[in-house]
């Protein structure tokens, strides 16, 4: 008699095709082989817990190299935890955050900022996912009014959820404007590496030197297995760094075996791997954009500046392509879809995907 609760001894019998590449998200990609090697090396022997380990110490030096002397790093489990904890550190209990309507903290983090972070999000519509001083001012008002949550922080995403980029000048305009109003600025850098690759700038140029106060530094979307980090960029803001020591624990983001997060981030940012992988993903997105632009009836809707392509694709064609490839609707009513490229997306993957779209548009 078979037991329906048992699994085959060979796990490959119930797993997906390892050769499959999809365009739904860069979260779908595997782990870069160099990261797996770093994890295996970190597994040797014993190390101190809760960040008292050689890898987390080394990560501090890597972060200072990229973001400047005195930048302080706090590894965490995931991006939502990083964003919520960062924003909590900027706000009193009555504080609010101005962000784009499309911001990850508003669209894709359930109610974590509000329910876990205890903050109000003040959202503004944007055509391209990017805030401006003028857009911020739509919600940056009412200070001293006890009936209104106080807008004391701005959160922006680089690169944005729509695959667009802020220039250094645009970031500086935002931070100068926000600081003049007594607001501090958080950057969601889940795809910060893709932004650096596209801008062809060191990380510091459009974070620390652009006036960002605190950064969620991504890794999962660029080839690591798990983990992100918070980076306090102002070395003189000791109170901010001190608050994160306690907030990270309160938010269940303090890893006991932190070395396994830190080792991955060191392997990524302590070498050229972060930039190499991001450049590749961006290049694959450009190849995909060029391919679909030649297909009648497929209309790109946003600039392709990092590793995302947004386009209008008629629903019958989208359904046909989804028989082979997974990807997400962005605005189903407008037939707008999103395609993401990853560090392991190949030219053959892109070309086969474009060919599948072309066949679907021809009705074949």
From TrEMBL:
**Keyword Lipid biosynthesis attributed:** no
SUPFAM superfamilies of this UniProt entry?
Answer: PLP-dependent transferases
Q: Which cofactor does it need?
A: pyridoxal 5'-phosphate
**InterPro entries given in the database record:** ArAA_b-elim_lyase/Thr_aldolase, PyrdxlP-dep_Trfase, PyrdxlP-dep_Trfase_major, PyrdxlP-dep_Trfase_small
User: Pfam families annotated for this entry?
Assistant: Beta_elim_lyase
Q: What's in the keyword line of the UniProt record?
A: Pyridoxal phosphate
Whether Signal counts among this entry's keywords is no
* CDD domains reported in the protein's UniProt record: TA_like
Q: Classify the source by domain of life.
A: Bacteria
Q: Which residue intervals define the domain Aromatic amino acid beta-eliminating lyase/threonine aldolase in the entry?
A: 23-311
The family annotation for this protein states: Belongs to the threonine aldolase family.
Protein's name according to its UniProt entry:
Threonine aldolase
In its UniProt entry, the species of origin is given as Zhihengliuella salsuginis
């Amino acid at each position: 008699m078979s037991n329906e609760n048992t699994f085959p001894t060979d796990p490959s019998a119930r797993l997906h095709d390892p050769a499959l590449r999809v365009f739904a998200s860069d979260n779908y990609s595997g782990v870069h082989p160099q990261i797996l090697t770093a994890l295996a090396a970190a597994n040797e022997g014993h190390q101190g817990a809760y960040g008292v380990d050689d890898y987390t110490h080394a990560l501090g030096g890597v972060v200072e190299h990229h973001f400047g002397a005195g930048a302080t790093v706090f590894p965490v489990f995931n991006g939502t935890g990083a964003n919520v904890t960062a924003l909590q550190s900027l706000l009193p209990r009555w504080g609010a955050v101005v962000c784009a309507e499309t911001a990850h903290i508003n669209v894709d983090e359930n109610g974590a900022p509000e329910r876990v972070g205890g903050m109000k999000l003040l959202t503004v519509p944007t055509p391209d996912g990017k805030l401006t001083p003028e857009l911020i001012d739509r919600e940056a008002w009412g200070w001293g009014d006890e009936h209104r949550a106080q807008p004391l922080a701005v959160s922006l995403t680089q690169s944005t959820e729509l695959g667009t980029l802020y220039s250094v000048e645009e970031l500086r305009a935002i931070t100068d404007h926000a600081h003049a109003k007594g607001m501090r600025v958080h950057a969601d850098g889940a795809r910060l590496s893709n932004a650096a690759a596209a801008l062809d700038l060191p990380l510091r140029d459009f974070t620390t030197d652009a006036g960002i106060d605190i950064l969620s530094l991504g890794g999962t979307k660029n080839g690591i297995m798990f983990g992100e980090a918070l980076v306090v960029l102002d070395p003189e803001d000791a109170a901010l760094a001190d608050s994160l020591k306690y907030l990270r624990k309160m938010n269940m983001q303090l890893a006991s075996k932190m070395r396994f997060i830190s080792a991955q981030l060191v392997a990524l940012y302590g070498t050229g791997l972060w930039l190499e992988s991001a450049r590749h993903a961006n290049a694959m997105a450009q190849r995909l954009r060029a391919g679909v632009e030649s297909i009648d009836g497929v209309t790109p809707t946003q600039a392709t500046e990092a590793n995302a392509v947004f386009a209008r694709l008629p629903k019958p064609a989208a359904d046909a392509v989804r028989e082979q490839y997974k990807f997400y609707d962005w605005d189903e009513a407008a037939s707008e879809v999103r395609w993401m490229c990853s560090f392991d997306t190949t030219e053959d993957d892109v070309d086969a995907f474009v060919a599948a779209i072309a066949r679907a548009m021809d009705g074949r």
